[in-house]
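Sequence only, no structure available. Ideas?
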Amino acid sequence: MVLGKSIARKTCFLKKEAKTFYALAFGLLAVGVLFHQEAAAAVGVWIASTAFSHCFVVLPIAGYLAWDRRQLLAAYPVQPACWVALAGVPLAGVWFVADRVGVMEGRQLVVVTFVELLFLAVLGWRLWAALSPALLYLFFLVPVGAFLVPDLQIFTTRFITAGLNVLGIPYYADAMTIQIPSGTFFVAEACAGLRFLIASIAFGVLFALLFYRDWRRRGMFIAASAVTPVIANGCRGLGIVVLGYLLGSPEAAAVDHIVYGWLFFSCVLLLMIAAGLPFRQDGALHSVVPAGAPAPSGGSRQAIWGALAVVMPMAAGPALARVLDIGAAAPGFAPADAVFVPGPACVASPGDGRAAMRHFACQGIEVTAAVEIFPPRTKPSILLAARNALNAEASDDTRESEISLAPDAPGRWQVVETPGRPLTATSLWINGHPSAGDLAGRVRQGWNSLVGTDHAPALVSVVVGLSEHDAVQAAPEQLRLTLTLFLKAQHDLESKIVTLSTQQ
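Reply:
I predicted one. C-alpha cells follow.
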C-alpha cells in the first residue's frame, strides 16, 4: 500500500516536471522562430571574426555549469513566477528601438534577456538563482565589443610609443602609424587586441565560477582577466616594433604576428591560472545545498502560463516591426551620368544617360561611381548592410578611415583599403546631409522610418582600382591620391544628392 502511494507521488511529480519542460521548450521554440535573424547574424559573426570564434563553445560551457550544480538544482522546487513576465513589456520596447536604430547587438542582448526572463517565469526565483551562473553565461553568445576597437588601437599605440621612449628608440607617431628608422608599423584593427580581450573575459568568468564561491574573489579574477590582456597586447605590439628595429625589417618582425599573438596570449592565460589557483575554493558548492527533500513544485499550469506570459510581449516587437516593413519599396540607383563629372586627368567612358554606374579612367586607373537611393522609411540596418556589402573583401589587413573634403567636395567619406583589392569610399546621406553612420545618424533615420521624411537616404560609392591590375600594381598612395582628386572635382555633388533624394 505504501509502495503504491510512493509510486503514485513520483508519477505525479514526473508529470509536473514534464509539463515544466514542455513550457520551457515552447518558450525556447518561440525565441528561435521570432528571433531567427538575430541568431543567424550572431553565427555569421562567429564564423567571420576570430574575436568571437569562442562563442561556439558557450552553449556547451553553460550546459556544464548547469550540470555542475545538479545537486543544488535538485534541492529547489519549481515555483513559477508568472508576474515577472511584465518585465517583457519594456524589453519589447528596447528591442523595437534597437531594430529601428539598426543596432543588431542591442537586439541580440534583448533576446538573451528574454531567455533569462523565460526561465525565471517558468522555474521561479530560487531555481533560477541556482541556475544563474549557467544562464548568465549565455550573454557571451552575443558578439558585442567591436565598439572598443578604436580605443584599444589608441591604447596599444600609446603603449608602444611609451615603451619606445623608455628604450630610447627614435620614432615618429601619427595616429595609428609608427615610424622607426628601419620602417613603418600600423596598429590595425586586428592588432587592437579585441580577440584577446573578449576570449580572456569569457575564460575569466568560467574560471571564477568553477573555482571560486566568494563573489569578491570572482570579481577580482574577472577584473584581472579584463585588464591583463589589454596590457599584454601592448607588450606584444611593443615587442614586434622592437624586433623590427633590431632586425632592420618591419616585415620580418610582423610575419605571422597573429599566430605568435595567440601563442603569447596562451602563455598569459597560463600565468593567470597559476596566479588564481592558490585561492581556489573547492567543495564550497555542496555546503550551500539545503538539507532534506525539496519542497513540492508549483502547479504545472502555472509553468505553462508563465511561458505564455513571456512569449506575448516577446512577439510584440517583431510583429510591430513586420507591420512597418511590409510593402517597403526596394532601393534604386540614380543615373550616374547626371551625378558625376570627370576629375583632373580623367576620361569618362561612354554612357546612355541611364546607367547605374559611371566609369572613368584617371591616369590609367579605373574609377567607378554610383548613387543608390533608398525609400524614405528605410531602416538604418539596411543602409549599413548595403554599405558593408561594398567592403565584403575586408580582411585582417584592412584599413578603415574617414575623410572629409568639404568645402572642396562635400560628404563624409568612409575609406576602406585592403592590400591587393580596390580602394572603396562610401558616403551616407540622411535628411539631405552627409552622415558618418554613427549612433546619432542611426537614430535620425530610425525616426524617419517611423514618421517619414522629405529626403530619402542615399549611399554614394566610389571604387578606385577596380581592375585586378590596378589593385595589385598601383601603390596605395596612388589610389588614395586618385580618389582625393576625383572627389574634389565633384563640386555640385551635394545639390545633386539633395535633388535626387527629394524626388523619391
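Residues 1-15 have pLDDT under 50 and may be disordered.
Hope that gets you unstuck.
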